[in-house]
Amino acid sequence: DVKVTQSSRYLVKRTGEKVFLECVQDMDHENMFWYRQDPGLGLRLIYFSYDVKMKEKGDIPEGYSVSREKKERFSLILESASTNQTSMYLCASSLQADGYTFGSGTRLTVV
Amino acid sequence: QKEVEQNSGPLSVPEGAIASLNCTYSDRVSQSFFWYRQYSGKSPELIMSIYSNGDKEDGRFTAQLNKASQYVSLLIRDSQPSDSATYLCAVSAYSGGGADGLTFGKGTHLIIQP
User: Fold this and answer.
1) How far is CA A75 from CA A8, A21, A60, A108, in A?
2) What was the pLDDT predicted at A99?
3) Looking at the predicted structure, is the pLDDT value of residue B94 above 80?
4) For B43, which of A45, A98, A102 is closest by C-beta distance?
5) Is the bond preceding residue B10 a cis peptide, omega within 30 degrees?
6) CA-CA-CA-CA torsion for B83, B85, B90, B96, nearest 10 degrees?
7) Residue A1: is its pLDDT beyond 70?
8) Which of B35, B38, B43, B103 to mutate to test the interface with A (most CBs of A within 10 A)?
């Protein structure tokens, strides 16, 4: 089975900090995605990537950036964390021909 | 703006009955459709994908697609308490869902009553 690993299950950060969320997949998938999930708002796409060093903005990229230096790793960066970025962050990966496999999620609290 | 609509529920179904979950989508060019199950506090898990009009069966699950009506449904036969979860419908304009990211509905909360 594909495994998508997110480095932290829970994180607490202070307003203004730079935050790195790491995601690693072990099945050589081309596609990787970052979503955030909030009650009442559902899953919203932040950024995605189809290849090393390639990135595309999703629906809500403001306040975020990403890095994909290696095929298996896709990092989400909060340049200056704010309280409205408190959320569950979900990483996913996929091949072209099927749906996503999600990581277990990182619950980020910004205080 | 692509939209995927689901009734948030909760949908309460007796154990052993058929649970019927519905989803409509706004983008007519959508080609790939997925159902995910999400238990409380866990990440979504893919349970069904469907790409062509009609029915697709996998065990107790049947996905139904009607592109003319822009409608996708999921039937769960012989519902079990372990099926109690939030079910997310997801849609993509591309085959396989890979090209532009999936658009998710907000989910239907299903409760199976023992």
Assistant:
1) 12, 6, 16, 15
2) 78
3) no
4) A102
5) yes
6) -50
7) no
8) B43
